[in-house]
Amino acid sequence: MLDRKFIIDNVEAVKLNCERRFVKADVERFVSLELQRKSLQQDLENLQASANAIAKEIGKASNVEERESKKESGRKIREQADLIRSQLDSLEVEIDSVQKTIPNMTHPSAPLGVDDLSNLPIFNGKTAIPAFDFKVLDHVELGEYLDLLDFESGARVAGAGFYFLKNDAALLELALQQYAIEILIESGFTPVITPDLARNSILQGTGYIPRGQETQIYSIDGTDLSLVATAEIPLGGLLANQTVDAEQLPLRYCGISHCFRTEAGAAGRASRGLYRVHQFTKVEMFAFTLPEQSEAMHQEMLQIECKIFDGLELPYRVVDTATGDLGGPAYRKFDLEAWMPGRGEKGEYGEVTSTSNCTDYQARRLNARYKTKTEKGTKFLHTLNGTAIAISRALIAIMEIYQKNDKSIAIPKVLQKYINKEIINKKK
RNA sequence: GGAGAGGUGGCAGAGUGGUCUAUUGCGCGGGUUUGCUAAACCCGUGAGCCUUCACGGGCUCCGCAGGUUCAAAUCCUGUCCUCUCCGCCA
Fold first, then answer.
1. Does one domain contain both A81 and A193?
2. What is the DSSP string of A67-104?
3. Is the pLDDT of residue A234 over 60?
4. Are both A256 and A213 inside the same structural domain?
C-alpha cells in the first residue's frame, strides 16, 4: 500500500501514476473518505477523553448519588462513541478496499505501455541463440521420448496441469537447486527452506489475495491456510510485524519452496507442457533493505539472475517491464526471457525469472519496519524479490536448447558434476 | 488428538475491577563525584496515530480478536503461540 498521508499530499502524482499504469483507481474517492475518517476519528478521541475523565472521577467519588449520576453521563458518552466507532469501522473497510487498488509509484525509467508488448529489451545474455541444422522438438516431445516428463500420469493423479518429473529430469531439478543455491550463498544470501503453506494474513501482507474469483491461490478448506504461490510469501512473512535494527540491513534470503498456482482462466495458448503448471519448485531471492539500498539491491538481484543463466549457457534477453505490466506492489521490474526453440512456430522468448523492487509498498502492509540508533521512531523497510531459478521454466529452456539431432539432450557443463553424466539418452 | 500451565516494555518479573502515570530490578543513554577506570548517587529510557510553528496536549497498544462495565493487564468468549504430560506417528 501507499502511505495514506502521501496519497493525500500527492493526489495529482498518484492519479498520473495510475494513468501511466493503466490502472483504474478512484483516488478522489480515497481522499474524501480518508478526510472524513480523520475528522470522525478526532470526534471519537474527544469523546473517549471525556469518558476516561468521568471514569476516573467515579473511582475517586465517595458519595453514592454522585457516582450514579456520573455513571449515567458516562453511559451516554459511551453510546455516542459506539455510534461513531461503527461508522468509522465501515469507513475503514471502504478506505482499505480503495487503497488496495492504488498501485505503487513507478520508477521514472520504466517504459510506458499497456502490456508486456511494451516491455523494453535492454540487453542480452552472454550465450548466442544456436542455429539448429535439424527440426527442433519442443520439451513435451523430448520429455516423452526420453521418459523425463509424464503429464498423463500427472493428470490422472492430480488433474490437468500436474506432472511427474522422472529419471534425469528429477535429478536436474535437484541439480538446478544446488547450483543456484551455491551461487546465492557466495553472494551472501541465507539459504532457507520455507513452509509451503502460509496463513492468509501473510498472503495478504505480501499482496496476494487468497480468495475470490480471480485468485491464483489454493486455499485449504476449513483452515486459515493457503498453499504458497512463491517463497516470496513466507520470506516476506519472516519480518511481518517485526522491527529490525538498521545496522543489520540489508538482509538477503534465498528460499526454496514448492509453488502452487491455480492459473484460473489461463489454459490453452502458449502454456503447453511445463510452461504454465499448478506446481513447480523455485529458488527465490528476497531482501529487506534500507530505502537508499533498494535500487542497488535490485541491480544485484538482476546480476545474479544473469550469472545463473550465463553459467547454464542459455541464451536470454533482459526486459525492463512496462508500466502497464507491473504488478501493483512493484516499483520496477526486470524479467529474464530465455530463448525456447520449441515454443511457438519458430521459437520464442519465454519468461524464466522476474525481479521486483517493491520499495515500501509491501512492507507497509506487512508492517515490517526498521529503526536507527540516531532517529526516533521506526520506518518501513524496502522489500525486493527475484527468481533465482524456477525449475519448470528452466527445464524447458535447457531441454530445448541442449537437444541434439538424435533427440538426446546434453547436460549443461555446470550441472554435470551433480548428475555425473554429460548427456541424456533414451533408455534401452 | 486428549489433559494441564502460561503469554506483561530490550531482558527478568510484580500486578486478580478504580488510589496505576503498569511496581521493581537488570540493561541502555545522560549527568554528579573522581588521577584513570570502576563503584555509588541523580535524571532519563517503548511503539503507532491525531493535534500544535514550537512547547505541549489527546487517543490506542499488557499475544491477537471480540464481549461485560461508568471504568479491564485484571472478569467472560473465541483464537494464535509456548511449555509439560498422555496418545499417535516419519
1. no
2. HHHHHHHHHHHHHHHHHHHHHHHHHHHHHHHHHHHSPP
3. yes
4. yes
Footprint of strand B on the protein (CB under 7 A): A 5, 38, 41-42, 44-46, 48-49, 51-56, 58-60, 70-71, 74-75, 78, 371, 376-378
Lowest mean pLDDT segment, chosen from A62-76, A191-205, A275-289 = A62-76
Backbone angles phi, psi at A419, to 5 degrees: -110, -15
Nucleotide nearest to A4 (CA to C1'): B49
Q: Where is pLDDT greater, at A220 or A392?
A: A392
| CATH assignment of the domain containing A62 | 1.10.287.40
Task: Tell me what pLDDT residue A264 has.
Answer: 72
Does A252 reside within a domain?
A: yes
CA A24 from chain centre, in angstroms, equals 21
| Phi and psi, residue A179, nearest 5° | -60, -50
Residue A244 C-beta-side C-alpha neighbours within 13 Å = 18
Q: Are A404 and A422 in contact (CB under 8 A)?
A: no
Cα–Cα distance, A11 to A102 (Å, whole number) = 11
Cell of A356: 521486483
A377 nearest nt, CA–C1' = B47
Q: Is residue A221 part of a domain?
A: yes
C1' (B58) to CA (A33) span, angstroms: 23
Same domain for A152 and A288?
yes
Residue A82 and residue A189 in one domain: no
Shared-domain flag, residues A36 and A134: no
Q: In which domain, by residue range, is A81 found?
A: 4-101
Are A131 and A157 members of one domain?
yes
Percent of chain A beyond pLDDT 70? Answer: 97
- Rounded CA-CA distance A130/A128 in Å is 6
Burial tier of A334 (Cβ tally within 10 Å: 0-12, 13-18, 19+): buried
Query: Is the overall model pTM greater than 0.95, yes or no?
Result: no
Q: What ipTM score was computed for the predicted complex, to two decimals?
A: 0.85
Within a domain: residue A109? Answer: no
Catalytic residues of A: 261, 276, 351, 354, 393
